[in-house]
Amino acid sequence: MANYEQLAMEVLKGKKKLVIATVNELLAAGEKPLDIINKGLIVGMSEVGVLFSQNKMFIPEVLMSAKAMEEGVNIVKPLLQVGDMQSAGTVLLATVQGDLHDIGKNLVGIMLESNGFTVINAGKDVSPEAIVTLAKEHKPDVIGMSAMLTTTMLMMKDTIELMKEEGIRDQIKVIIGGAPVSTDFSNEITADGFAPDALSAVGLCKRLLA
Amino acid sequence: MYTTKSLYRRANFDINQTICWKMLTDDQCEEIFVTAAEVLERTGAHIENKEAQKLFAANGCWVDGDVVKIPSSKLEWAVRTAPSRITLCNKSGKRAVLMETENSHFGPYYGSEMIVDRASGKQRKITVNDAIDTARLSESLENVSFVSAPGKPEGFRKETAGLYALEALILNSNKPIIQPVSNAKEAELAAEMAAAAVGGFDALRQNPYVVFTINCNEPRFHSEDSLGAVMYAAKNGIPFIYQNKLISGVTAPSATAGTLVVALANNLVALTLAQFVSEGAQVIAGGNFTIFDEKSGIAPFGAPEAGLIGAGFSNLMRYLRIPSAGIAGISDSNVSDAQLGAEFTYGILSSALAGTNLIGGGGALESGKVASSAALAMTDEVMGAIHRIMGTFDMNEDTLARGVIDEVGPGGNYLGEDHTTLFFKSEQFWPNLITRKRIDDWTADGAKPMGQRALEYVEDLLGQPSVELVNSTVAAEIKSILAKAEETL
Ligand code: B12
Questions:
Q1: What is the per-residue pLDDT for B436?
Q2: What pLDDT is recorded for position B454?
Q3: Which residue out of A62, A64, A110, A194 would a mutagenesis test of the B interface target, given it has the greatest number of B Cβ atoms within 10 Å?
Q4: Residue in B416, B425, B441 nearest the CB of A64
Q5: Do B421 and A64 touch (CB under 8 A)?
Q6: Which of A186, B94, B125, B180 satisfies CB 3.0 to 4.6 Å to A194 for a cystine?
Q7: HSE of B8 in the Cβ direction (CA atoms, 13 Å)?
C-alpha cells in the first residue's frame, strides 16, 4: 500500500516513474490531491533542500528530484478545487541585459515552482525597460535578477533605479543572484536580498513574503 | 539506453585503458642492463661481508680480496629467478599491496631526522609518539597503502630505536609496514615482532606484512651489515628493498643514463646474492635519486630530476620484471608553500605514471630531512588527484552519450539529465583538502591556506579516539622481543 513517506522518498531519490505510480495509487485509494502535494511531494523536496545545504546532494540530483516532483504535481493539479492550492507568491525572473547565462536562473525557477511559487520566466538579455513593463503587467511579488558577468551586474542597479522612477519599487521585492554578486552588492544597490544558490533563493523568497 | 547507434560491432578497436607514459624503450633498458652487467663482470663490486663473499665464490663468481666480479650468466639467472610480483598484506592477512606490472602504491617517507611539531609549528626531534601519529594518520588516509615511521625516534639507543618505531606501527595501524633495518640482528628482531603480530613466521611468509628497507651505503660498496640483513631476509622469506641513494654528479655519474647503470649494478649485487641464498627470494629494487645543487650544496629530493631518474629506474625494473620502489612527495621547501605544492605534484606524478610499485616519501620537507603530518595529508590529496588522472575514463556507447547529446540539443545544458546523475560522481575527483570555494565563502571559513586546512584535518583525525588494533598477548610478546633487543643489540 502506497503511503506519503514512500512518495517523499521517491521525490528525494528523483524517481520520476515511481512518483507517477505512487501518486496514482494514492489517488485511487481516495487520498486528497492537496494532501498528496503537502504531505508527500513537498516533504520530499524539503528534505532535498536540507541535504543540498549539507553538501550531501548535488545540483544534478536536486534537478532530478524537482523533475520527479513536477510529474507528481502535474497529475494532481487538474484535480484541485479552485482556491485549494494557493500560490506561495509570484516571481518574475530575468537574466539582465547583455548577459546570456541562464542555466542558474532557470534552476532557480524550477526550484521556486516545485516549492509552490508561480514563476514568470522572462528569459535572458532582458533590459531594465522590459523588466519594468513585465512587472507592471504581471504584478509579481518578487523580481529576481541574475547576472554572471561583472560587466552586466550593474544592469541590476539600473533596473532598480528605473523601478523607482516608474513608482513600482515599493510594491515589489527585488532579489539578485549569480556568481559575481553578493550580499554586499545587494545592499549597495538597495536590493532586498541575495541568494548564493537555487534552494536558498526559495528560502529568501519565503522570508521576504512572510 | 543512451544509444542511437545502428546495430553493428566494431572490429579491431584499440584502446588505452590508462595513461601511457613510458620513458625508456625496451632497447634502452636492455642497453642499461648490459652496461651494468659489464660493470659487474669487469670492475666488480666491493663486498665487505665474508659470508657473502663465500656465497658468491661458491656460485661461480670471481672473488679477489673484497672485490667480487659477477659473470653475466649469473646475473641473468638471478634476474629470471627473482619473482616479478610481490604481494603485501595487512595485519589480518588481507592482500593489500600488489607490487606487480605497473601498479603504484603510496606511503609516507621513512628517512627524516626531524618533524614539524603540530602545536608549535617548529621543527623538533622525532619521538615514538610521532610514529604512533603517522601510523594512525596513514590508517585513515585513503591513498596511503602502507605505513612507516617518519624516522628513528629519540630517547632510545640508536641500535634499538627503529624497533620501538616498529612497535608503534604494529600497534596503531593495520596497513603493511616498510621498516628500515641496518643489520642482520636488527632484521631478525624486527621479523620476530612482525611474526608475533600476524601469528607466526609461516603466516608472515605467506602473507608478507613487513618489508625491510636496507641501504646500499655507497655505490658498488656493499657493507658487512647491509648484506648481512639482505641474507637474513632472503633466508627467512621476508621481502626487502635494497635501497640506492644516488646523487648524480657525486655518488653516480652526472649523466642520467650512467646513474641508472650504477643504480642497477648496486641492485643486482643484492638481488643475485639473495637468489644464491634462496632461489626466489623477494627483492624490490629501490631507487632514491637526485642531482647535486651546486648553489646550495644540497641534494634536493624535490628536484624534477628526482622524478626523471626515478621514472627511468622504474621503466628499467619493469623491463627486468623486478618490483620497484622509489620516493616522491618530498619537497625542498621548508614550509607549506607554493613550491611544496609544485614539488609534491610533479614528484608523485612522474613516479606514479612511471609505474613505480612502492612510492614511499609522502609528506617530507627540506629535501626529506623533516617530516610533517600536515604535508603527508597534502600528498595523500595529490595522490588522489593523480589517481583520477591515471584512472582516465571508460569509453562505450553510454559514455559517448550520443543519445543524451541529441536529447539536450544545441545550447541546452546537462544538469538535469538522468545521464548526468549516472556519471557525475564517478567521473570526477572529489577533493578533500583542495578548496574551490568562491572568495566570499573561503573568507567566511577563515581564509585558510592549504597548509592550515591540512593541519586542521590531521588534528581532527588524530583527535578521534584510538582503537585497539592488537590484543594484549601480542602486545606483551612484542614488548618481550624489545626487551631481548635491549640485551642483544
Ligand atoms: C555555462 C557558462 C557559459 C555559457 C552560458 C550558457 C547558458 N545558457 O547559460 C556560455 C558558453 C554561453 C557562456 C558565455 C560567456 N561566458 Co560564461 N560561463 C559559464 C560557466 C562555465 C557556468 C555558469 C553556470 O551555468 N553555472 C551553473 C549554475 C547552476 O550556477 P550559477 O549560474 O552560479 O547559478 C546558481 C547561483 O548563482 C544562483 N543564482 C543564479 N541566478 C540567480 C538569480 C537569483 C535571483 C538568485 C536569488 C540566485 C541565482 O542560483 C543558481 C543555482 O544554484 C561560468 C563559470 C562558473 N564557474 O560559474 C562561466 C562564466 C560565468 N562566464 C564567463 C565569461 C567571461 C563568459 C563570456 C564573456 C566568454 C566569452 N569571452 O565569450 C561569454 C559571455 C556571454 C554573455 N554575453 O553572457 C566568466 C565571467 C567572468 C566575470 N566575472 O565576468 C565565467 C565566471 C567564467 C570565468 N571564470 O571566466 N558562459
A1: 94
A2: 98
A3: A64
A4: B416
A5: yes
A6: A186
A7: 4
**DSSP state at residue B142:** T
Residue A91 grid cell: 516571481
Give distance in angstroms: CA of A149 to centre of ligand 1. Answer: 7
Which whole number is the average pLDDT over A8-17? Answer: 95
pLDDT in tens, B226-268: 999 999 999 999 999 999 999 999 999 999 999 999 999 999 9
Task: Tell me which of A148, A183, A206 to substitute to probe ligand 1's pocket, judged by most ligand atoms within 8 Å of the beta carbon.
Answer: A148
Q: Which residue, A77, A72, A78, is CA-closest to A15?
A: A72
**Ligand 1 atom nearest A99 alpha carbon:** 78
CA of A144, closest atom in ligand 1 = 45
Q: Which residues of A touch B415 (CB under 8 A)?
A: 59-60, 63, 103, 107
pLDDT of residue B3: 58
pLDDT (tens digit, 9 = 90+) per residue, A98-124? Answer: 999 988 898 899 889 888 899 999 999
If one counts every other C-beta atom within 10 angstroms of the C-beta of residue B428, the result is: 9
Chain pair A-B, CB pairs under 8 angstroms? 25
Pocket residues: Cβ below 6 A from ligand 1:
A 59, 98-105, 107-108, 144-146, 148-150, 175-180, 195, 197-198, 201
- Mind listing the domains of chain A with CATH numbers? 4-79 (1.10.1240.10), 90-209 (3.40.50.280)
CA atoms within 13 A on the CB side of B90: 16
Contact A33, A83 (CB under 8 A): no
Mean pLDDT of A141-156: 96
Predicted-complex ipTM score: 0.73
Judged by CB atoms closer than 8 Å, whether chains meet at B415 and A179 is answered as no
DSSP result, B26-37: HHHHHHHHHHHH
Q: Cα torsion at B312, B317, B318, B324 (round to 10°)? A: -100
Beta bridge partners of B242: B214, B285
Q: Tell me if residue B193 falls in helix, strand or coil.
A: helix
Residue B263 · residue B306 · CB < 8 Å: no
Q: Who's near A19: CB < 8 A, 6+ residues apart?
A: A7, A10, A11, A41, A68, A69, A71, A72
Residue of A nearest to B430 (CA): A55
**E strand or H helix that includes residue B63:** strand B62-64
**DSSP per residue, B174-192:** -S-EEEE--SHHHHHHHHH
C-alpha to C-alpha distance for B379 and B385, rounded to whole angstroms: 10
pLDDT for A25 equals 96
Which residue ranges in chain B fall short of pLDDT 70?
1-8
Neighbours of B465 (CB within 10 A): 4
Q: Give the cell for residue B55.
A: 656465497
Which pLDDT tens digit goes with each residue over B324-353?
999 999 999 999 999 999 999 999 999 999
Residue bearing the CA closest to ligand 1, atom 61: A148
Could you give the domains of chain B? Answer: 86-253+279-390 (3.20.20.480), 397-427 (no CATH)
Among candidate residues B321, B311, B377, the one with its CA nearest the CA of residue B349: B311
Which pairs count as long-range contacts for B72-79, CB under 8 Å and 24+ apart, including other chains?
A: B72/B37, B72/B38, B72/B40, B72/B41, B74/B272, B75/B37, B75/B40, B75/B268, B75/B272, B76/B37, B77/B275, B78/B268, B78/B271, B78/B272, B78/B274, B78/B275, B78/B276, B79/B268, B79/B271, B79/B320, B79/B321, B79/B322
HSE (side-chain half, CA atoms, 13 Å) at B371: 27
Q: Which residues of B touch A58 (CB under 8 A)?
A: 424-425
**Dist. CA A184 → ligand 1 center (Å):** 20
